[in-house]
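Lab meeting minutes (informal)
Scribe: AK
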Amino acid sequence: MNVSATLNAFRLLRNPSLCLPHATIPTFNDLPVPLSNAFGNAEADIRAVVLDKDNCFAVPKENVVYKPYNDKFNSLLAHYPPPHILIVSNSAGTSSSDPFGTAASSLCSTTNIPVLQHSTKKPGCGPQILQHFLTAPGSRVTLADQIAVVGDRLFTDVMLANLMGSWSVWVKDGVVENRNPFISLEKRLPERLVRFGFKAPLPGSMR
């Protein structure tokens, strides 16, 4: 159970905009590189990227890049090499799902990207992510709005970005189709919220 997501659901009741992305793409292969180009005319200065794993760039429960996404993944890694890229998963690297770090080590080995070890699942691990980028040797990140979060879930990845004051890119169609009714409802939510006048929060220093 994701206690962090459950607790943060009450924030959504007060502020539904927290689950609205700044940019939406069909699949990971549609991700613009550099990521600053994802946000239209916004003056985004993206210096670092947070990547979700499951159903974003990898088949759920697998620790390798989905083969059709290899070229895009390598392009992203070339533009944002460590320490300016970080995988944050609610499976690999969490103290509850991966207590010995086995999955995180495997994922790091196959992607050449560090995997955040975190006790609080998304969307509640923002402080750990910021701490990572602000203190990593060689990092050019000084503000939260220099970070973009890429993921397929509104209530974890997108909400994480908005709580951090960062940019969000929502991968609407994952690697595999998820027939869960809750996921289907989640995918229809942004259109309905926008219809009622809600907008994604401006990142950090732009608010």
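Next up, CB showed the second protein from the same session:
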Amino acid sequence: MSVVSKIANLFSPLQSPLAPNDRSTLQSQSTVSPPDEFSRIHLRNAEPKQSFNMEEEEERRHPYIHCMLAGGVGGTSGDLLMHSIDTVKTRQQGDPHIPSKYTSLSSSYLKIFRQEGVRRGLYSGVTPAFLGSFPGTIIFFGCYEYSKRHLIDIGVHNSLAYLASGFIADLAASVVYVPSEVLKTRLQLQGRYNNPFFSSGYNYRSTLHATRTIIKEEGFAALFYGYKATLFRDLPFSALQFAFYEQEQKWAKEYVGGKDIGLGLEILTATTAGGLAGVMTCPLDVVKTRIQTQLNPTEDVPKNLSSKSAANTAGLSSQPSSKPAQSPNRSMRTISTSSPTTTIPKQGSVTLDTSSVFTGLRLVYKTEGLAGCFRGVGPRALWTSVQSGTMLVLYQVLLRKLEAHPLVAGEGASAL
């Protein structure tokens, strides 16, 4: 056998698999498999495009720490944005002068700005506002997400779960934000230290000095003044706000067919949810303000009320924090201890000689009708719309940023 024949025999076994029958089999497999693989890929890509499944979206849950941080930043930003407006309203409600020194919103805003400036005037009390708002909203969003998820998991209807979760979350956060609101409100009413333009009866040097003075002279319980009245208004507001917001978000996602609804719809859903909740709880705001700002009709209040006795008219207790005891013929005139309160009692309106919210609602409706129950509904709707819009839009934006961030997007963040 020649050398050429031996070399040819070495390669002959490798040719057997490529026999005609085998080659036809391989060709048939190669012609069938690519379409099958292509169809499988096409079906996988087409599945999520058929419809937006809200049940799958509910299963996609952000880590609690993300919700708490995003909520804390969003809520604090909304509160600080509207702080100057809240200061003007506090001055209007707690003004002891007759006639009132602060009348309309715009003129009062400009007057405080010209006389006292921004830091010590319009933004007086901003330190306790921040110290209460950030931890308060962190607690709120943490409790809200925890309650919502567990209620949905045990079979509670989504809308009812949103409503109940808002109630529970605001109740938990109130332990933090009510004391901070008392401090904030007194400093807002006071303005600058030794204020020559407005005599409120308070004269605290700082937030720390105010805290120490209140606890020393009035007791620790004074930091929770108005707690019950605050809950009667703020718990229904938070419950309705988040029930509306979650439902509007659901409709928006179904409309666009995905979870990213765009900035326009984010603003629309957030502002309308806050505005609607503010309008619906306006009667509670009216009664709360009347109860906390009224003059007791059983007392003989002199017409020539001096600013030196304003501590009792604007005070949150019968003993002012930095002034001596006032005349016994003065009655307590308290101010709102929670934002936002946008109702200014109409001159000559009925005095609510009661601390019961339900009794107050009946009296206002009986004497002033439905219009009296919704007095100040315009400013309240504006306030709650802007504040809620800022908070909830930032909340969603920050959640997406946290989800996409490489340091927190891994399994470690999901474990939280």
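CB comment: Residues 158-190 form the longest helix (33 residues).
No objections, moving on.
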